[in-house]
Write a structure and sequence with these properties.
Elements: E1 5-9, H1 16-26, E2 33-38, H2 43-54, E3 57-64, E4 67-73
Amino acid sequence: MNFDKELDARGLNCPLPILRTKKTLAELTGGQVLKIVSTDPGSVKDFQAFAKQTGNELLSSTEGGGEFVFFMKKK
């Protein structure tokens, strides 16, 4: 999937991946896509809730090798 910016949140625990995502999304313009890589298993539910609360679209979330990859589109 194409993305405009990547955020490495590996090794960070809740709520840091969400806080860093929020900060990074603020730097993007509407419609741009952010790729987030996290190692926190709780981030799956966190990003689903974050997308609902903020109106940003969670395009996909995948898991493999202990890493979780999310693609989020800024509203």
